[in-house]
């Protein structure tokens, strides 16, 4: 064979193969590469968006924590005020109870003192009568004696 014919035949086969590759093989490969590039670009965009969302979420978390701390501080101070108020009310109530108990004890002591005075007056009257009877050693009229005791009681009061 002739070298020129072989060269021409190889050129024809090469161009047919090149044409076939560019017509049927190359477009699916390019399409797959383009799809892959688009997926990678979309993934990078989603990652950037996720980073931005994460930063925004972190800012919101910090703000919510700050609000929660303030709220907890308010609740704590309110609870402390309420506890202080309850303690003050309990102290005031205890003071009122103590004052009432003291008044009742004083009244009871006054009544007991009055009873003791009356009992003492009766004893003094009986002792006076007994002493007078011993001194006089004579009979005393009971009516006169009762009147004298009544007068003595009145004087002692």
Automatic annotation (TrEMBL):
This protein's name: ATP synthase subunit b
Residues in coiled coil: 47-82
Subunit record text: F-type ATPases have 2 components, F(1) - the catalytic core - and F(0) - the membrane proton channel. F(1) has five subunits: alpha(3), beta(3), gamma(1), delta(1), epsilon(1). F(0) has three main subunits: a(1), b(2) and c(10-14). The alpha and beta chains form an alternating ring which encloses part of the gamma chain. F(1) is attached to F(0) by a central stalk formed by the gamma and epsilon chains, while a peripheral stalk is formed by the delta and b chains.
Compartments it resides in: Cell membrane; Endomembrane system
Keyword Transcription regulation: no
GO molecular function, one term: proton-transporting ATP synthase activity, rotational mechanism
Role, per record: F(1)F(0) ATP synthase produces ATP from ADP in the presence of a proton or sodium gradient. F-type ATPases consist of two structural domains, F(1) containing the extramembraneous catalytic core and F(0) containing the membrane proton channel, linked together by a central stalk and a peripheral stalk. During catalysis, ATP synthesis in the catalytic domain of F(1) is coupled via a rotary mechanism of the central stalk subunits to proton translocation.
Segments passing through the bilayer: 6-26
Family designation: Belongs to the ATPase B chain family.
Taxonomy, superkingdom: Bacteria
Gene source species: Parazoarcus communis SWub3 = DSM 12120
Ribonucleoprotein as UniProt keyword: no
Keywords: ATP synthesis, Cell membrane, CF(0), Coiled coil, Hydrogen ion transport, Ion transport, Membrane, Transmembrane, Transmembrane helix, Transport
SUPFAM superfamilies assigned: F1F0 ATP synthase subunit B, membrane domain
Membrane topology: Single-pass membrane protein
Entry-linked InterPro entries: ATP_synth_B-like_membr_sf, ATP_synth_b/b'su_bac/chlpt, ATP_synth_F0_bsu_bac, ATP_synthase_B_chain
Pfam families from the UniProt entry: ATP-synt_B
CDD domains: ATP-synt_Fo_b (cd06503)
Record-level GO cellular component terms: endomembrane system; plasma membrane; proton-transporting ATP synthase complex
